[in-house]
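BUG: 3D viewer hangs when loading the predicted structure for this chain

Environment: internal workstation, default settings.
Expected: structure renders.
Actual: progress bar stalls at 90%.

Input used:
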Amino acid sequence: MKSAIITGATGMIGSSLIECLLNEGIKVTAVVRPNSKRRAMIPNHSLVNVVECELDNLLSSNTEVIGDTDAFFHLAWEGTVGEARNNFYLQNNNVKYTLDAVELSQKLKCTTFVFAGSQAEFGRVDGLLSSSLPCKPENGYGVAKYSAELMSRMMCNNLNIKHLTARILSVYGPNDGENTMVSSTIRKLLKGEDTSFTPCEQQWDYLYCKDAAKALYLLALKGKKDAIYCLGSGKAKELRYYVETIRDIINPKAELGIGRVPYGKNQVMMLCADIDDLRNDVGFEPEYSFEKGIEETINWWRERK
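Structure tokens produced before the viewer hung:
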């Protein structure tokens, strides 16, 4: 792989993937929204080419400016949190944008297309998440992700492009959204604000963004055609552990308020990836412990306090 294009390049995973690819000497085209407030997350580097483009305008991209590209990482997606997950018209648009990304990858002569799927495609599962499990999504976001995955795979097969799916679980790290559980907990504790949580009995699998980026790179490089890989650390711990670890680094005396919030409807109680296929096919192994990754994340937020 000598060159790659990334949609969603200003996000947490996208910016980490750019860093990973640059470390491998790979030329990167970063697709960003016009006038994006997060453009500063894209490094000023001789191997990085920034292309401003809305998702609904992907097919108008100047392919001559981008040039022939080896791999296409489609990470961009609208409506990933809150009520937007069940905005069915919005989610349906994301399916079209994914197919546009496949068509653009053909124009750029890409040989590999990596689709960022989601654990939401599975719905609620008691055990480990693996590609062999049936998908029973319970919201519009999960349905749209599954639809986009299936159709983009079929389209790639018709165009002779290798298709790979990473069904991503919970990734954390610098440049994450402000309102995720990890980010909001860090921000509130740094400001000395009160926090409130559910009983925190959920078994959760968290993966640091740099590990996620490395996995995506290896997947594009060595993954099997049409394969689905669940992307996580492969280990689950009680949510209380993660919350208390964050608290202990910032202020061990802080009261967390665990149990103040009741579980929501359809609460997912188990979320853990089976990463045996990632290990066997591409040689992926997480390098960051939660303690190491969360310390880097907390320091990143401290700099922006």
